[in-house]
Amino acid sequence: MSVAEPAVFELRDVTYRYHQVKALDCLCLAIEPGNRVALLGANGSGKSTLLRILDGLCFPQEGSVRFCGQPLSEETLARDGFGFRRRVGLVFQNPDVQLFSPTVFDELAFGPLQLRWPATEIRRRVSETLDLMEIAHLRDRSPHHLSMGEKKRVALASILVLDPEILLLDEPTAALDPKSESHMIDFLVRAKGGAKTIVTATHDLDIAEDIADTCCVFQEGRVAAVGPPSQILSNIPLLEQTSLLHSHLHMHKSGAVHAHPHLHRHEH
Amino acid sequence: MHIPDGYLSPSTCAVLYGGALPFWCIALRRVKSLFHTRLIPLISVFAAFAFVIMMFNVPIPGGTTAHAVGVGIATVVLGPWASMLSISAALFLQALFFGDGGLTTLGANCFNMAVIGSLAAYLVYHLLARRAAITASRRVVAAAIAGYVAINASALCAAIELGLQPLLFKNAAGAPLYAPYPLSISVPAMMIGHLTFAGLAELVITGGVVAYLQRANPILLARAAPDARLAESEVLEAARRDTARTIRSLWTAIALLLVLTPLGILAAGAAWGEWSAKDFSNPAARAQIMAVSEHAAPPAQTPRGLARLSRVWTAPFPNYSPSFVRRRAFGYMLSAMFGVGVIILISLFTSWLTARIRPGPGEAETEEA
Amino acid sequence: MPAGSRQTRSFIERTAAALVDALEHAFYAEELARAPGFLQQLDPRIKLLGILALMITVVAVRSLKVIAGLFLVALIIAALSQVPLRSLLKRVWIAVLLFTGVIALPALFVTPGRVVGRLPALGWTITAQGLTSAGFLVARAETAATLCVLLILTTPWAQVLKALRVLKTPVVLVTILGMTYRYLFLLLETARDMFESRRSRLVGKLNSSERRRVAASSAGVLMSKSFDLSSEVYSAMLSRGFHGEVYALDEFESRPFDWIMLGACALVIAAAFWLGG
Questions:
Q1: Any idea what DSSP says for residue A153?
Q2: What phi and psi, each to the nearest 5 degrees, are found at residue B259?
Q3: Do residues A201 and A50 lie in contact, with contact meaning Cβ atoms separated by under 8 Å?
Q4: Does C2 touch chain A (CB under 8 A)?
Q5: Cβ contacts of residue B231 below 8 Å, gap of 6+?
């Protein structure tokens, strides 16, 4: 990676308040091109808010956000919104809010239509993406007839259809059954070859190693630690302190009871 | 109150589509200027909400349940214009998927419930809740009454549209081609049901939801109440943007006229049960019918209909048509039902009012009657 | 006041049942829309236009025989489209008869005109005009409702929306309708779950005012959720480049068959008006 290339996102002293409650508190963070970042944190640690700021959906009350060296604000986005919307895509945690169109086909076509692509190009891209995500058989289905796993896949497809350089994912494996979850992880691992920048917010430590080169641990709106997955995931005191990990009492076959750190796979 | 297909003549339907159309256009423009790009998801989700509310069985005082329309709460939270669009969308889907109300009569149903309902609810709520704090119990009472008045204004419009059908549309033998009952039957029959059951359901839902939101989510209530004394000011970005205050006051005046015209007829007709053919042969009453039929029938049809009026009109109510014993009995029945309805209502209202005054604010809307 | 507990359960159960019923009804419609049949194969635009025109005809003609004829046409279309008559009977005919029939009944007695009969016990007289009038009301309501149900049972909702757009309905309105339908299901499910969990928690008796409080707070919760949902959907739309305008991709091919059917429909309507206009 060349030194001259600016960071995709650079946040300086970003503070975001949500009705007097600080969701982000003097946050500093830089995300380099092609990097895959996992934002780790318990619920309410501010990682969803950060994703929204990165996607230009809300803007911090204090501090500055730069996108590829340019300031990202309501005004700059209004001036040149489409370049940004084309290049950055956010997959929401709740697929129901993202699937608002009458059919899966319409859902995938929504983004391209908003960006005024030509009709033949839209049709080609949509069917390509349907095949890529293995959801071609759902093409004419209504979103409310889909299972949770299918919904999440369609939601991801509705973003991938635009082929964004930067992919923001909010809890991509939450509320998925094991099969859908491994399918989702497979996809995210495969995406490594695509040289995309991927930012994933999750509290699922199991997937962090597969989907990220860098882990950012969040606590109360601040970055508590940054480092490669191997280093962060072995730092048990840090994980316990940030509520990503806690000790459970276990009864083993021998009858001995002992406590050991326990990774969390599922949302509570 | 959802008028099905076949109850209104095509010309009445066309006129009422025409009546609703300008309101839809204005509403679309107003909502766009208020909510900007938020318009589509906001209206859609609240239309879905109104649809679900229409399926609620609302327990009303007296142990039975009834269905509300949701126009009261939609107006209180979203304002009259967004409410108009949401309720109209909900009515369209109801007609299409569940056969609740017809497609040819969709214009009429939207005009009655979405347009008149929203405007009536807005006027009442803003008159009564004027400058009250968002969490004031006055807002609960204002909302409840607004819902109640809205439903009854809608029902009255529907009753008048239905009641005009037999006056205007008959075959050669004199058989009504559409809704068969004249105003003297359709108005009291509709109003009994709505002054009591349906009106109370709307009253309970509107007042109850406002009381709930005051505790749980006061910000929602502040959106459409720019005159409220507020703690939270940041939520008002939308409501504050009042670009066309003059247009609004103009439309408020028109709305007032629309609501008052049918009410005026009733006032002129003396007591409900005493409405008679004689009233309709006198020029003043005719003029009022004419005023209403501007919304309900094409002008070309009106003179013929009115000329026929005195001939075909036979009041089913007591004392006026001694030759029709059978209809007198029916009239007695209707009058009695209506009288009972009014009495129930007054007693409910007074007991509700006294209960309200005693235990203090906030619980009024759910007090046992 | 009647006993509390039974009343309480029945109020919550009735509401939940209505919601589930609504869901199932809609699912049934989408299922049938995929069956191979006459109406299912028609171009949605032509189907929409044709059926709306037939409905207006039903409302406009002034002859009972002609309305009966149009009802027959609707029956034939239903049979060709594999719409089971039993489901029409259950969903449409009986429901409409119960509602409109009850409303039309007093018209037999109160409509002035030629006396043709007398009710034994009460002595009320039935008039010919009353009979005709009640007949018109019931026949029109039944026929129009049948046609509307045929349209919706044989057309996927997305196709109805597309047809509306092609027929020059403003895109913003069509988008609102589509999204309303979409989130209707989400809110129906939310409301149903809310009532079900409430029912499972209920052990004691609720009096009438508490029941009203339950209904109102359920509606209030639903309203708060609706608002959050609409803000989230808005963000999701913004994120994909939405800036207030919506665009659509419409593709319809009509074959000669569609135009022939439109012609047939026009012929039926012309005949109806000629015979009973």
A1: H
A2: -75, -35
A3: yes
A4: no
A5: B134
Give tens-digit pLDDT for B287-322. 444 433 333 333 333 333 333 332 333 333 333 333
Residues in chain C, how many?
277
Residue B58 · residue B204 · CB < 8 Å: yes
Please, which residues have CB within 8 angstroms of residue A195's CB and are 6 or more apart in sequence? A34
Contact A89, A162 (CB under 8 A): yes
Task: Give residue C1's pLDDT band: very low, low, confident or very high (50, 70, 90).
Answer: very low
pTM greater than 0.80 (yes/no): no
CB atoms C11 and B57 under 8 Å: yes
Neighbouring C-alpha atoms within 13 Å toward the C-beta of B204: 36
Task: Please check whether residue B99 touches C, CB under 8 A.
Answer: yes
What would the DSSP string read from start to end of B49-94? HHHHHHH--EE-TTS-EE----HHHHHHHH-HHHHHHHHHHHHHHH
Token pair listed for C207: 């009096």
Q: Do B4 and C141 touch (CB under 8 A)?
A: yes
pLDDT digits (tens, 9 = 90+) for A10-43: 888 888 887 777 888 888 888 888 888 888 888 7
| ipTM of predicted complex | 0.88
Q: What is the pLDDT of residues C19-48, one digit of tens each?
A: 777 777 777 777 777 778 888 888 888 899
B5–C18: do the CB atoms touch at under 8 Å? no
d(CA B194, CA B202): 10
Query: Measured between CB atoms, does A148 come within 8 Å of chain C?
Result: no
Q: C45-84 b/e with 16+ CB inside 10 Å = b?
A: bbbbbbbbbbbbbbbbbbebebbebbbebbbebbeebebe
Q: Do B63 and B57 meet the contact criterion of CB atoms below 8 Å apart?
A: no
B226-235, C86-95, C133-142, C174-183: the lowest-pLDDT one: B226-235
d(CA B50, CA C222): 10
HSE on the CB side for B115, CA within 13 Å? Answer: 29
Task: State pLDDT tens for residues A203-228.
Answer: 888 888 888 888 888 888 888 888 88
Q: Which of A90, A110, A144 sits opposite C186 (nearest CB)?
A: A144
Q: Which runs of E-coded beta strand occur in A97-244?
A: 166-170, 197-202, 214-219, 222-227
| C-alpha dist (Å) from residue A80 to A129, C236, C245 | 26, 18, 16
Three state DSSP letters for chain C: CCCHHHHHHHHHHHHHHHHHHHHHHHHHHHHHHCCCCHHHHCCHHHHHHHHHHHHHHHHHCCCHHHHHHHHHHHHHHHHHCCCCHHHHHHHHHHHHHHHHHHHHCCHHHHCCCCEEEECCCCCCEEEHHHHHHHHHHHHHHHHHHHHHHHHHHHCCHHHHHHHHHHCCCCHHHHHHHHHHHHHHHHHHHHHHHHHHHHHHHCCCCCCHHHHHHHHHHHHHHHHHHHHHHHHHHHHHHHHCCCCCCCCCCCCCCCCHHHHHHHHHHHHHHHHHHHHHC
- Cα–Cα distance for residue pair C91/C79, rounded to 1 Å: 16
Identify any residues that bridge with A22 across adjacent strands, giving them in sequence order: A17
Alpha carbon distance B300, B289 (integer Å): 14
Neighbouring-strand partners of residue A169: A91, A200
Q: If you ran DSSP here, which 8-state letter would residue A7 be given?
A: P
**Percent of chain A as helix, strand, coil, to the nearest 5:** 40, 30, 35
| 3-state SS assignment for residue B183 | helix
Q: Which residue of A has its CA nearest to B219?
A: A19
Residue C15 CA: distances (Å) to CA of A10, C11, C18: 52, 6, 5
Query: Is the separation of the CB atoms in A263 and A234 below 8 Å?
Result: no
Q: Do C216 and B180 touch (CB under 8 A)?
A: no
> Of how many residues is chain B composed?
369
Q: How distant is the Cα of B40 from the closest Cα of chain C, in angstroms?
A: 6
